[in-house]
Write the structure tokens for this entry.
Amino acid sequence: MLDEMRNIVAVLVGKALEGDTNAASIVLAKCLPSIKAQAEKVNFEFDATAPISDQVAQVLDAVAAGAVAPDVGRLIIDSIKSLADVRASEELEARIAALEEAKDAQG
């Protein structure tokens, strides 16, 4: 079976060298790793203890100043929003638990 695979690869490489773009695509896909987009690391003034609206404003200021690329800024803002959503859920959960506890204490 290994010999058959070698023959298949040889045929594909031969066709790719002859200009067959489909064969070239298959060969290159197996030989070269896929390039995955990576966000660049950024460094800017950011106060994580500030209110959410201030945090978003800090990111927008960094984008406006050119310290952060717009697409990276969007990722950071989306992350801030996700964290705010998680915190809101935790806060709501705690408030419901406190209400249930108070109700049980009364009854």
In short: Residues 15 and 23 are 6 Å apart (CA to CA). The mean pLDDT is 91.
